[in-house]
Specification:
It contains 4 helices and 14 strands. The protein is of the alpha+beta class.
Length: about 220
C-alpha cells in the first residue's frame, strides 16, 4: 500500500494537476513546483546585495532555511510529529523562471515547524541599469499546518490564504530592523480572490509586488 501511495502521489498525480482548471500558459510572476504545477505568486522583492539580504533577515529575526537532505527531512518530520522546535527547517523547492530559489528564510510560529512564516527569493536583473544592486523577487506565504496536497496527495505544508499579509510582514519586519530605505510597488501576477497554489491551497491577493530597497543601518 505504501508503494502504491508513493507511485500515485509522486509520479502519476502530478501529471494530471491541470484537470482542476485546464492547462494554462506559463504564468508571469508565478512560481511553479518541480512538477510544473503553478505555485505561489511572486509578491515581494528586495533591492540590494546578497550580503545585505542575509544581514537584513538576520537582524529581523528570520532564519535561513536548511537545504533539503535526508537528515533535515527527518528533523522536520520529528519537529512536526513531536512538536519540537526546528527554526531552520527546510522549505520545498519552487521554481521561478525555470530556477530554484536562491534563498529561503523563515520565522517560526509556536513550538515546531508545523506553522511558520516563510519567503523564497530569486535573483533577477536590476529594475534599472546601474541601480543599487540586484533585484530579488520573492514569494512569501504562511505555513498553517502539514497535510497532503489537494492535487497530488504528496505530503506538504498548507498555506494561509492571505498572501498579501505575509508580503507586508516581510517588509514590516525588515523596516523595524532598520534595513528598508524605501518601498514601492510593481505589477505582479494580477488580483485574484480564488487563486490556487501548487498544493491546491486557495489564496487571494491584490496582485502587486511590494519592493523594499535595502540600506545598511547606521
Amino acid at each position: 500500500m505504501l508503494l502504491a501511495y508513493l507511485a500515485v502521489a509522486y509520479l502519476a498525480a502530478p501529471e494530471f494537476w491541470w484537470i482542476r482548471d485546464g492547462r494554462v500558459d506559463p504564468l508571469v510572476m508565478r512560481t511553479t513546483t518541480t512538477d510544473g504545477i503553478p505555485g505561489d505568486p511572486i509578491n515581494v522583492g528586495l533591492v540590494g546585495t546578497k550580503n545585505d539580504v542575509l544581514q537584513a533577515f538576520a537582524a529581523a529575526g528570520w532564519r535561513p532555511a536548511d537545504a533539503i537532505t535526508f537528515s533535515t527531512s527527518i528533523e522536520i518530520g520529528i519537529s512536526v510529529v513531536l512538536h519540537r522546535p526546528d527554526p531552520d527547517a527546510p522549505v520545498s523547492t519552487l521554481l521561478y523562471d525555470g530556477r530554484r530559489q536562491d534563498f529561503a528564510f523563515e520565522k517560526p510560529v509556536g513550538g515546531s515547524a508545523d506553522q511558520r512564516h516563510h519567503v523564497r527569493f530569486w535573483q533577477t536583473d536590476p529594475l534599472t541599469p546601474g541601480g543599487q544592486g540586484p533585484l530579488w523577487l520573492g514569494s512569501a506565504s504562511f505555513d498553517r499546518g502539514v497535510g497532503v496536497s489537494h492535487d497530488t496527495g504528496q505530503i506538504t505544508h498548507h498555506i494561509g490564504p492571505d498572501v498579501d499579509a505575509e508580503r507586508n510582514l516581510v517588509i514590516e519586519d525588515l523596516t523595524t530592523a532598520g534595513w528598508i530605505a524605501s518601498t514601492h510597488e510593481i505589477e505582479g501576477s494580477g488580483a485574484t480572490q480564488d487563486g490556487r497554489n501548487g498544493g491546491g491551497d486557495r489564496f487571494y491577493t491584490d496582485g502587486m509586488v511590494l519592493i523594499g530597497v535595502l540600506r545598511t543601518p547606521d
